[in-house]
Amino acid sequence: MDVLVLLEEAPDPSPVLARVDSVPGFTFERRGRDVVTLYGTPSTESLALALAAVVESRRAEGYGQGAFRHLGVWPGRGAVGDTAWRDAVTGELVTRDLDIPLAVLTDIALRLRDECGPLLQRLVAGLQMADWPEGMWRGITLTFDPDEVNGTALTGAGMDSLLDTVRLADGLSYEYEGD
To answer: Is the whole-model pTM more than 0.85?
Structure first.
């Protein structure tokens, strides 16, 4: 799974921390990608919460090839959004609301920060670098294997596998070869 982490200025009246969107891969040569957009000044906490929303949203009913997900990560509320996919049998568009409680996101985010704190700090530092060309989108790609996260409940073994994969990932990449 590829996660593109972007940085944008905070929307003025909104307290939203991040937005998580999925872009499915429709061919075998191209994997799907999740796009995490952090708003305002990024922190390891906001990045960890957004990545926790990515991991937990992939466990939602209906995830599969061709599923789109759109979530907002809110302080005090968790992640709220929806997922949509085309039913393989009927061809109808199916949608489901997603509501991931803050307690679930916080638990996953704390484990990510405990296990991958230096990687998350490097990602945040890369987004905050002053030498980005003016007018350029600030974005860094992180890659890990979604098959390492199994089941509907967070298990220590499944999360440990994910964290091992994230630790070994090539975290700071300014170019992505499929864009």
So the answer is: no
